[in-house]
Design a protein that fits this description.
This protein has about 190 residues and is an alpha+beta fold. Helix content is about 50%, strand content about 15%.
Length: about 190
């Protein structure tokens, strides 16, 4: 019943039959849209990480040259812990409390839902993001991208374990790719 339906080579669909025998169809988000969302989210996290490092390094601890190299100092451990929590929490908390989306996913127009078509839950988001570490191996999300490329429903390992799927938002174009009206187009209307 929950087998994927294929429309064409690049437009993959996943179908779900509800208990009321209503078929829901979702277009799965491919590797390109997922990678675009990931690049946006990575850019945001890069800015957050730099800010955290600068705040801890300069503002809070002064500007001693060897402060981070001092073996009796736990500053580097604290900085790394804060950066890890920020990076993990960014994806986990946004997907759990923002309707299955991060900032990058919202800009691209994709969303995480469960395999049965319902919104992603706190637990499914937690499981999905715990497996992000495995998907990122060996580097640059290579393993996750490889699995996503070959899976018929465009799922990465975290999606397979958590029972989630990333789909394209229906009925709307992504704000990132919408054409803007110019003054000459507006004057014609």
């Amino acid at each position: 019943m929950n087998e994927p339906t294929y429309v064409s080579g690049s437009n993959r669909e996943a179908s779900v039959v509800t208990p009321e025998h209503v078929m829901l169809r979702f277009q799965t988000a491919g590797l390109g849209s997922r990678a675009t969302a990931m690049l946006i989210d990575t850019g945001i996290l890069l800015l957050v990480n730099l800010t955290v490092f600068i705040l801890f390094g300069i503002v809070l601890f002064g500007n001693e040259d060897d402060f981070f190299l001092d073996s009796g100092n736990y500053t580097l451990a604290i900085v790394l812990l804060v950066i890890f929590v920020a990076n993990f929490g960014y994806f986990w908390l946004q997907e759990a409390f923002w309707g299955g989306q991060t900032v990058g996913k919202r800009l691209v127009g994709i969303r995480v839902i469960r395999d049965n078509g319902q919104p992603a839950t706190f637990v499914s988001s937690t499981i999905r993001n715990l497996f992000r570490i495995i998907d990122a191996m060996p580097t640059g999300y290579f393993l996750g991208a490889l699995v996503c490329f070959f899976h018929p429903r465009d799922k990465r390992i975290g999606d397979l374990v958590a029972g989630t799927i990333v789909v394209v938002e229906s009925g709307q174009r992504s704000p990132l790719f919408q054409k803007r009206k110019t003054n000459s187009q507006t004057a014609l209307i």
